[in-house]
Specification:
Four copies of one chain form a homotetramer. Chain A has 337 residues and is of the alpha/beta class. Chain A is built from eleven helices and 14 strands. In chain A, the strands form three sheets. Chain A has an eight-stranded parallel β-barrel, surrounded by six helices. A four-stranded antiparallel β-sheet of chain A has the order 2-3-1-4, with helices on one face. In chain A, strand 7 (96-100), helix 3 and strand 8 form a beta-alpha-beta unit. In chain A, helix 3 (107-120) packs parallel to helix 4 (144-157), helix 3 packs parallel to helix 11 and helix 6 (191-198) packs across helix 7 (214-226). In chain A, 60% of the residues are buried. Chains in contact: A-B, A-C, A-D, B-C, B-D, C-D. At the A-B interface, helix 8, helix 10 and helix 11 of A face helix 8, helix 10 and helix 11 of B.
Chain lengths: 337, 337, 337, 337
Amino acid sequence: MLITIKKSASAAEIHSVQQLLDHHRLGHRICENRTQTVIGLEGNPSEEIALELRKLPAVEKATRISTPFKLASLAAKPEKTVIHANGVEIGGDKVVLMAGPCSIESQEQLDLIAVELKKAGVAVMRGSAFKPRSSPYSFQGMGEEGLKLHSGAQKKHQMATVTEVMNIQDVEMIAQHVDILQIGARNMQNFDLLKAVGKSGKPVILKRGLSATIEEWLLSAEYIMAHGNPDVILCERGIRTYETSTRNTLDLSSIPVVKQLTHLPVIVDPSHAAGRTDLIPALSKAAIAAGADGLLIEVHNDPKNAKSDGKQSLLPQDFTNFVPDLRKVAEAIGRSL
Amino acid sequence: MLITIKKSASAAEIHSVQQLLDHHRLGHRICENRTQTVIGLEGNPSEEIALELRKLPAVEKATRISTPFKLASLAAKPEKTVIHANGVEIGGDKVVLMAGPCSIESQEQLDLIAVELKKAGVAVMRGSAFKPRSSPYSFQGMGEEGLKLHSGAQKKHQMATVTEVMNIQDVEMIAQHVDILQIGARNMQNFDLLKAVGKSGKPVILKRGLSATIEEWLLSAEYIMAHGNPDVILCERGIRTYETSTRNTLDLSSIPVVKQLTHLPVIVDPSHAAGRTDLIPALSKAAIAAGADGLLIEVHNDPKNAKSDGKQSLLPQDFTNFVPDLRKVAEAIGRSL
Amino acid sequence: MLITIKKSASAAEIHSVQQLLDHHRLGHRICENRTQTVIGLEGNPSEEIALELRKLPAVEKATRISTPFKLASLAAKPEKTVIHANGVEIGGDKVVLMAGPCSIESQEQLDLIAVELKKAGVAVMRGSAFKPRSSPYSFQGMGEEGLKLHSGAQKKHQMATVTEVMNIQDVEMIAQHVDILQIGARNMQNFDLLKAVGKSGKPVILKRGLSATIEEWLLSAEYIMAHGNPDVILCERGIRTYETSTRNTLDLSSIPVVKQLTHLPVIVDPSHAAGRTDLIPALSKAAIAAGADGLLIEVHNDPKNAKSDGKQSLLPQDFTNFVPDLRKVAEAIGRSL
Amino acid sequence: MLITIKKSASAAEIHSVQQLLDHHRLGHRICENRTQTVIGLEGNPSEEIALELRKLPAVEKATRISTPFKLASLAAKPEKTVIHANGVEIGGDKVVLMAGPCSIESQEQLDLIAVELKKAGVAVMRGSAFKPRSSPYSFQGMGEEGLKLHSGAQKKHQMATVTEVMNIQDVEMIAQHVDILQIGARNMQNFDLLKAVGKSGKPVILKRGLSATIEEWLLSAEYIMAHGNPDVILCERGIRTYETSTRNTLDLSSIPVVKQLTHLPVIVDPSHAAGRTDLIPALSKAAIAAGADGLLIEVHNDPKNAKSDGKQSLLPQDFTNFVPDLRKVAEAIGRSL
């Protein structure tokens, strides 16, 4: 159940709602964001308790919701969420292109790539300065220095920026440099990090975990929302299966499934899913046809010498070449790009 | 290695090729189809043996092939295979629609469905009379009686037909009634059945096994080809993963992967993959965008009372409604439908 | 539901049971084995229909069974099934050792291995003459010739024999040569083959499919039982997962799970699961500790030159060396070996 | 490669090693723990560079290591690591029992459970005060208050303690209250957390991620070790597969696989793997037989009203009942319990 609190409610009035819930041992959490205050309940109470709740002065409405995620559910908000990040609209009619290198390496690298991406219609430039790497001996990213380059380069080229955040201590600092925060697949259930980005005030791209169910993915979105941030962008990036011809198995069914469950936008990262560049054009077209609101693609000016993920990074020109095809598919399904 | 035998070669000359291979303990198999005779080798011999082989009078050429499948490989045949089944072309520019009920139940059922499908542009009608069912107590199909209905109905409505074959004893009988044989996912590595349909003279739709790698799938195609049948249509129908919001996980990456490995056409069955009808439109569009040569979709006039797979069967009208959208996507990628 | 038919029931009386089921459109199948006749129902009928059924003269009892498998369920038969094969008891207190080569290759090979195995306490010798191979160019087995060697060698060394059967045409012939038939993992849902071994009169080892759920595995056992053969031995041999350090992931949880669901014995094949010999001792001990009724292990006198599965085959002596450890574990859990 | 630094080396001498590595663009990291300083390299350098390295005054030895984990490898340290935590030895001959509730709920709860566990021979009591929960509306743990209870109760009952740590900010505080830190499966690749517990000075139980390969698991152990902590205890707790009869699939093969790769101890958590209590006895016996150095089992005095994981928690008495059977299996393989 989701209890919407009246704007006029006093702290004491809200407190008495919580007391009633505590009395009935109903797990709950008060969630405030920029437009409303709600109380999320773990389950749905009995009809009797619901009646009691609805009589309380602080309660505007109390909506039964059958899914374990509440704020993220279509039952809570039937209209699609459109997210704004530095002038870019995500979740609207237009399919949004996001691209860039895996790791930020230098000013020159960013400039070289940004010029090409901008021409191709890319709205959001990716690039990370803190990298989750399997080995402690691998390059771990340029750190804040890199973020400054990212921020500078993108102001120059007029694109919004996205970067990965890996721990709660960095959230505030990173939020000052970029427009969108990204939670990587390995951190999808790093609940303290989810809480922290919930309080960051910046839109968040939430990548699906390597073995996360769609329900778990939406519950992680719920964490972010329940801590004050309604601007969550889901990102399908492949799940781990037995198949080895691709790095992960891109689960494009998740796009229409998610659209039946939530109002949040969902984008697709074919680069991490495939782990090889030759499949990117086909998978990008398929993602748009399946209903994705955007694409997140790795592009690097010198993939062979990239500090990470070179194998799955396209050259700017190879990326640019298939953008017109993406546009045609977007138009075929009644969208633009 | 694949050894192409000269058309003029005598039996004795061919025999001496095999003797040489036996002498060097090289696993091989002689494969004859309607246009050529080849000898497939398990691996690739040394350069010395290759030289010896190429000197033999029966040998036209001896091609090293790095993949474990040989006849199915692009190295053996770089141009795309186009398969003809009762006037329908599979693997050409046109994306082929195949649809129909899971089980054949009656004359009326087939007629009702066929009329609608024909109008929507469906070229191949599916329907099975022998059903692989998990439980021995479930409906096992109408048997030959059903095939006669299938064959009759389709002559009347002028569509090609496809039906599942489950055991070697039925291959010949079934091949007399329908235009295309189908090997189900559970039989993808029923090697004796693959050999039998290899000798059937009819095109074969080979569904990917629930946990088959792409390499194993192509090796199963190789079995059919190595036993004389070059007309294999691959069919992606979802793989088994931990995700439960869909019946199986449709692996659309397999389409571009397979296109890089083989000249055979590949189609997609979104119905069995999703196990629910609401995802079929999105997945069908995505499949075409990913490069599929056709779609295989379950359509039933009365899904609630279907003898099998009702949950994933569309009503004819619901199917018909999204065909124009499929056409737009096909045209966006330069194909027709 | 499972309807037990009275021994005294006439054909007409049985027919009237089936008529009643047909009238109520209840999927069912009549199953006869050497001791009883039962009718298995796909689901459970309403209480009213159950009452009607119980009044019919042919009906001894009608047992509601909540699982989709009926004859295989503990509800149908609470006491453990003990299977006898040429003097060997499977499913009793004693843990049964089954071992031998993957493929039968020659008389010498069988004799060399058999002598060692016999000394180590192996009761059943494995060895196949028809091999399911991923590639059509790989060695496909010696055929009936091999079975004769198998049969001869084992008479000489006084062990029971098991061999794989791959197609319905060979069932009868193979059943004449060996004591136990084996259905391989790739054929676990080759339903026509299950029906055929159901009529064979020989005990059947049913390997779990690479991606079969436990329920599907037991339903495949039910197929064999419903076609007249109560002597099914389940065999866990690993399932396909993303982990690559082993060939498959041995699911030892399936042992206690299966014991809670069925009265059938269950054995473990660590060789195919691991795909490497160094894990076999540890996995064999774990399998016994988990409650397995037997082990099926690949042993070959010359693994490097084995015609199949050499990588996972132990030398006879390496196998013999850890048998005493297995015995200790069996005794620790109150069994013998 | 792993470069061992001489105890006598000066900072400047160590710096010149790093300079040489930087010059050759070799990813590396300097790792200091209580007994030694080493430099881990991402890969292995050429023989020429190795020669150069070995000539430097700071270098004691430079060992080529073929696995991506270095400190954790058997090549770096062939003898088994035995870890000491408040008097308990983990990784020695004795199999260690660890048990307790999922969440710490009250003083009474801890006392009730501790008395029984102590009698049964449990050496380490588990209990968490910070809980990773899929839903933001579920009970999130008692926090530091709970840790104080945990610490107090265990002093009273003389057991070592283990608790989960979820974020870097809590590491220091938690390390003051308990003897062993636990990294949960969902945080196995939360690299900043791994670094933080690397500096904590306390032994760490590292649970395997739900879809982590064994290599990734050992690389996460390497993170902890490379940041100063040699005391890592691996914990197998099941991986995510398609099978639904258990919550996860316990991968007992990982025990012997890990033993071939690392000197670190490995324990098994059958409770989280199975998600149901009826399988715990069989899986515990199997884990010991497979070579596990310990067990981690959920025990709760009132599972039905547990604040988390009630379904998989044993009653103290049910746990106590099968401990003698575990002892017999341990003795059968030459260990004690």
